[in-house]
Design brief:
Strand order of the largest sheet: 1-4-7
Helix content: under 10%
Number of helices: 0
Oligomer: single chain
Largest sheet: 3 strands, antiparallel
Radius of gyration: 12 Å
Order of helices and strands: EEEEEEEE
Structural class: mainly beta
Length: 88
Amino acid sequence: IKINPADNVAVVPQDVNAGEQVQVVETGEVFTATEFIKAGHKMALVDFKAGDTVVKYGIPIGKMMSDCPKGGWIHCHNVEDTTAELCT
């Protein structure tokens, strides 16, 4: 689920295993999960580098602490939360 067109992450509505393909309903884009992503967590829609801004709801919600490829898991382990939304 890509909430806002400006988002660079999407929320997976069900558990996704590494290697599974995920289609973003709103855009039709298909991504391959690079690792397990738990339902309700975020998947990278772009290749992130450390320091990049994570955008959800069309607003910045955090900064990447490490690189993460397209299809990777975005959560508290690799993002500095700037909104108190990320790890809830």
